[in-house]
Amino acid sequence: MSRTKKITLGISAAALALGAGMGVAGMASATTTPAPSPSSSASSDSAGPGEGMGMRGGHGGRGGFGGVRATELAAKLGVDEAKLTEALQAFREAHKPSAPPAEGSRPDRAAMEAELAKSLGASLGIDEAKVTAALAELRSAEQAEHAAALKTRLDKAVSDGTLTRAEADAVTKAVEKGVIGGGRM
Question: What is the spatial distance between Cα 139 and Cα 135, in angstroms, rounded to a whole number?
Fold first, then answer.
């Protein structure tokens, strides 16, 4: 499942849990407005074969590893985007799992990132340390973008009266600690 989907589902789950906690008091004054289903906030897109590897199509031209945009990574590394895309595709194909991961298990992200940096370095004739640094820099920038977007959505929910400030802060803290949303902000 893509990181964006995980964050969306995590926030939806947190909002539903918070709503359920407050729902007992609201039951007495409930209206006939139907409640949204949990699936209404989830995307109907199926995950591609590179899920977990960050190889995504669509999403504003995003593709790469961990959501890193190939265009930005190519610019940071000083290589042609087409060559980088080929190298990323080759890495994805070489590391495609033969079976789905066991329930509750996750691939070692650090190990996969190290393998990616080594593979890209070798494929593109670039020092592995330079690739590692570029990936880390782009990932940090993307995490900052996600954190800012989440803050904006939570602030709007607070101003709309959908959430209290304490609830919004709890969601933020849960995402920062990796409890929901697929990782740290």
Answer: 6
